[in-house]
Write a structure and sequence with these properties.
The protein has 136 residues and is of the alpha+beta class. Strands 1-2-6-5-4-3 form a six-stranded mixed β-sheet.
């Protein structure tokens, strides 16, 4: 089993936990992006936490709540996905850390104005995913 002080833990990746479930799933967020999440109003935070808890429980999420495929990162070939609400997207990827199904949020789009993701933000998210996992 992986120790929580190991680089293969949320803390070792520079992330904090946002949501979790007794079924084992959890959502972590890069500390660089957590400020943005904390700046959301209470209603927005509550909606995102609710969606994240459903993900942690292994529930199938509607396309209005979660985009299952935003493309892949170049170096590590990580599938980028996004939690969605209020025209805001939080981008990340799934990985097993410390024997737990974990979604790691690594970027966000604060004001999505169309159904498609902003290509510049998505490119940045893919690079961030590779960067956070470079030593793992």
């Amino acid at each position: 089993m992986i120790d929580d002080n190991d680089d293969d833990s949320l803390d070792g990746l520079g992330c904090d936990e946002l949501a979790s479930s007794e079924k084992g799933g959890r959502v972590g967020i890069s500390r660089d992006i957590k400020r943005e999440f904390d700046a959301l109003d209470e209603k927005q935070q509550g909606r995102f936490i609710g969606i994240m808890k459903l993900w942690c429980e292994g529930r199938k999420l509607a396309p209005t709540m979660f985009n299952y495929n935003e493309g892949r990162s170049k170096q590590k070939n990580l599938l980028i996905q996004a939690f969605k609400a209020f025209k805001i997207r939080f981008y990340g990827f799934e990985r097993h850390l410390s024997d737990r199904r974990t979604f790691i949020i690594i970027d966000y789009d604060p004001a999505k104005k169309q159904d498609k993701a902003d290509p510049n933000i998505l490119k940045r998210a893919k690079s961030s995913a590779d960067e956070i996992m470079k030593d793992v």
